[in-house]
Amino acid sequence: MKKLKLVGIIAISIVPVFNSIAAIGYGIFIKKFSAAIYAALFLIASVVLLELDSNETNQHLLKTHEVEKIENLEVFYFDDISIRFPQYSLTTTQLSDGYHEEVKQNEGKKLVHKITTLGGKFKSYFILDQQGNLVEDRLKKLYEQQLKNYEKDHPNKKVVFQDVVYRSYYGTIAPFIIIISMIHCFFTLRRKKEDEVVTTRNNSRISIEPSREVEMIVENEVNANIEVEELIQKSENDLNVALKLLDVNNANDTQFAKLKGISKVQAMYFVKERNENGKYISLTNFFERNSISQNLQNELKEFLFVENNIDDDDTSDSNERRGRVLDF
C-alpha cells in the first residue's frame, strides 16, 4: 500500500504545472500554508518564464529571418518535417537498421558512402573520398529538398531549417524552476496533517497519559522523518554525480547531444539502440554498439559512466546487439 502511494506521489510530482496545483491544494488541506505559498510561487515562475521564453524566441526568429509575423514563418529542426508532415519525407529507406558502407564509382573516382539507418530512416549519410575527406552530406541535401517541396506548396510562408534550437535566457532558467517544483511537490504530498492540540475552554492544555497507540504513531513519524532525510541525502548525492558524469543508461537524446562531437542524430541513435537492444553494460560496449571512433572515445570517456560497470571481457556478447554492416 505504501509503495502504491509513493508511486502515485511520484506520478503527480513529475507533471509540470499540475504538480504545483496539487501541492497548493494539499498544502491548504493539511494547513501547511507555507508549502502552498511556495508551490504557488513555483507555478507562477514556471508559467511566466515559459511565456517570456516563447515571446523572446519568436522575436529572435522574426529578426533573424526578416519576417513581420510569426505566422508567416515555418522553422524546421533536424528531421521534424518528416514527423509533422510525413508526405514531404525523403529520408525513408528500405535498408535495415544499423551501419552500412559501400564504395561507388563517380566520374572515375571511388567514393565511400557511409550510412546509418534507424526506424526505416536515414540518420546519417556521408560521402567521403578515399582519403577520408567529406565530399557531400547527402542527408543535409535531402533535408533541404524536403523544405523546398514544402515551400513550393506554401508560397505565403518563409521556410527555414536550423541545426540548433534557439534557447533564450528565460528558457534556460525555466527547467530548473520546474525541477525544483517537482521536488517540492513530492515532499509536500508526503507530509501528514498535524494533530490538533486538545484544549479546554480557557485554552489550557489537558494532560493526557500517552497510550501505546500514541507512542507507535510518534515512532512512525520519527521513522518517516528519517526516511525523508535519507531520501534528500540520496537525491543530493545523485545530483552531484549527475553534474560531473552522464550515465549512458539514463541519459536522453538532449543530454547526449550536449556532448562535444555528438550530433542530435547520433544522440537519438544512442537512445534507440539502448531501448531496442538493452542497456549498455560498459563504456566499451557503448562505444562498440554505436560505432564511435577511437579519437571521439578518448574525448567522451571523462564525461560518461555506466553504473555497475563490468569488465570488458564480459561484454563479448554485446557485439550481437550492434547494427549489422551490410553490402548493398
* Low-pLDDT ranges: 195-209, 239-243, 311-328
How far is the first residue's CA from the last residue's CA? 57 Å
**Average predicted local confidence, pLDDT:** 77
Q: Would you list the SSEs in sequence order as H and E?
A: HHHEHEEEEHEHHEHHHHE
User: Spatial order of the strands in the main sheet?
Assistant: 2-3-4-5
Helix content: 40-55%
What is the C-alpha radius of gyration, as a whole number of Å? Answer: 27 Å
Q: Can you count the helices? A: 11
Quickly give the structural class: alpha/beta
Strand content: 5-15%
The count of DSSP E runs of length 2 or more, i.e. the number of strands, is 8
Morphology? globular
For the largest beta-sheet, the strand count, sense and barrel status come to:
4 strands, antiparallel
Domain module count: 3
Layout of secondary structure:
Layout: H1 2-13, H2 18-29, H3 33-65, E1 73-77, H4 80-84, E2 98-106, E3 109-118, E4 121-128, E5 134-137, H5 138-153, E6 158-162, H6 169-189, H7 212-244, E7 246-247, H8 253-257, H9 264-277, H10 283-289, H11 294-300, E8 304-305
Parallel strand pairs: 1-6, 7-8
Antiparallel strand pairs: 2-3, 3-4, 4-5
Helix pairs in contact: 1-6, 2-3, 2-6, 3-6
Provide keyphrases for this structure.
328 residues, alpha/beta, 4-stranded antiparallel beta sheet, two-stranded parallel ribbon, 11 helices, globular
Structure description:
The chain has 11 helices and 8 strands. The chain has helices at about 1-15, 20-30, 35-65, 80-85, 140-155, 170-190, 210-245, 255, 265-275, 285-290, 295-300; strands at about 75, 100-105, 110-120, 120-130, 135, 160, 245, 305. It has 3 domains: about 1-75 and about 165-190; about 80-155, no CATH class; about 245-320. Helix 3 (about 35-65) runs antiparallel to helix 6. Strand 2 (about 100-105) and strand 3 form a beta hairpin. It is globular, with a radius of gyration of 27 Å. The protein is α/β, with parallel strands linked by helices. The strands form 3 sheets. The protein has a 4-stranded antiparallel β-sheet. The chain has a two-stranded parallel sheet with strand order 1-6. Strands 7-8 form a two-stranded parallel ribbon.
